Amino acid sequence: MTGKALVKLLDENGLRTDGRKLNEIRPIKIQVGLLKNADGSAYIELGRNKIIVAVYGPREAHPRHVVIPDRAIVRCRYHMAPFSVEERKSPGFSRREIELSKVIREALEPAIFIEEFPRTAIDIFIEVLEADGGTRTASITAASVALADAGIPLRDLVAAVAVGKIEGELAIDLNGLEDQYGEGDMPVAMMPSLGQITLLQADGRFSGEEFEKGLKMAIEAIKKIYKIQKEALKRKYIEISKEVLEGE
Amino acid sequence: MNSKSELVIPKIKKETILSLLRKNERIDNRGLEDYRKIQITTGLIGKANGSSIVKLGDTTVITGVKIQVDRPFPDTPDRGIQIVNAELIPLASPIFEPGPPGEDDVELSRVVDRGLRSAEIIKLDELVLIPGEKVWAVFIDIYALDYGGNIIDASALASVSAILTAKYNKAVVENSEIVITDEQVPLPIGNIPIFVTIAKIGDKLIVDPSYEEELVMDARITFVIDENENITGIQKGHPGVFTYGELIEAKNIAIKVSRKLRETLPLSKPET
Question: 0.95 exceeded by the pTM?
């Protein structure tokens, strides 16, 4: 984010570079349980973002010293493939990826009944295959579906979106261009039916009023994403029940 | 902090902190919105361009600023460079371990970096010598010396005061060559940010958590507030949750507290 409007992000009709309105999220597609080895998995497409998430566990925690006697440890690795961005990214873990792994874990952990699985580990692996703004929030949305797919008991799903500022206006779900040239970015994650916010970050510049309005916008969008998550999970169970019936 | 450290707080102390908070009292007699005593010492390190030691209660942090000529990043040929690095070294606490920077170190440096950058405390566009070729790079290195909680605010304050008091030799460009002069100048300063970290314990929001309070907190949130009382950074941390109402309240507390800190702390802009 450079804060300099070098690119026109809103046209004369108030539409964005990809034709969206300010309060419109990009199309979302979620696919559940596509990986065979993982205990749970999900694939999400959010606009041009493509992210795959695998969940393993609860399983025996290694190395032994990381074990916590009264609950599961949650570990998360957020990683971007070298080909996911314009300029090839080095495959090693960047500082950005280390920080995002931490905040994503802290956004998901409150939803998991970790106290039900003492001395175990729950591992969440996120691989960003293509990135176009909003990968951390899309990763959270997909990872919580993958946790549900793994059969791990959850207080609620966690859905996430970023709200940002382009040409002085609040806009939901920034794409890569808007993220780069906009004036602010505020990712939010939430357990929608509990009204509990599990991730909040911001950079750029927001007035106190914009912060409140932006947070409300994010919460509205999160409710829409939550519906899509639930539909994706239901679709998988309908498929399974069909398979079972056909097998009889 | 790491999961091991969470285990070391005696249950009895935890109960004390919680029962006091129910009466809106804290274990060290502070009000819920009070900072611990803050002490800032600048200019201690002769070989650094700027330096500052901040004591925030039992927490001590040192920041050193080094300013040198470097190549600009390819995507920002017309801007100087700001790099923040923070290390939670084992010298500062038994809960820190030696080795390469972990998640907590990286989060700390990135949160401080974003807060300073978004507020534009250093006017990076004024640090260009030859566009695309040579710019000034400002390295802000943060070291924890004694860990007593709320390392983010202490680190940010040490960094801000080191930046405000930093001096470097002015350079001029003659025939596409950079000539360093003897004239000492301060960094071009934009908007000075104040970082305010608030912990949530039960249903209470408390400012500037001590180490013991961090051990029992559910979550923390840092707001970076600029001179115009805009928000130039937010970071929620720790696996806990906030409601919408709590976040609005935390934001209002942060703005109020930043105003008070700004009045009392010696954070004036250098004279140019």
Answer: no
| The pair of three-digit structure tokens given for residue A76, joined into one six-digit string | 């998360």
| Domains (range + CATH), chain B | 3-264 (3.30.230.70)
Q: Residue A99 and residue B107: Cβ atoms within 8 Å?
A: yes
Inter-chain residue contact B238 with A203, CB threshold 8 Å? no
Q: Per-10-residue mean pLDDT for chain B, 272 residues long?
A: 52 87 95 98 97 98 98 95 97 92 96 98 97 97 98 98 97 92 97 98 96 94 98 97 98 98 92 77
B149: left (phi over 0), alpha (psi -120 to 50) or beta: left
Give CA–CA dist B192/B115, Å, rounded. Answer: 10
List the domain boundaries for chain A. Answer: 28-247
Which residues of A lie closer than 8 Å to B, measured between beta carbons?
2, 66, 68, 73-74, 95-96, 98-99, 101-103, 105-106, 109-110, 184, 186, 191, 194-208, 211-212, 215-216, 219
C-alpha–C-alpha distance, residues B264 and A245, integer Å: 73
Give CATH superfamily name and number for A28-247. GHMP Kinase, N-terminal domain (3.30.230.70)
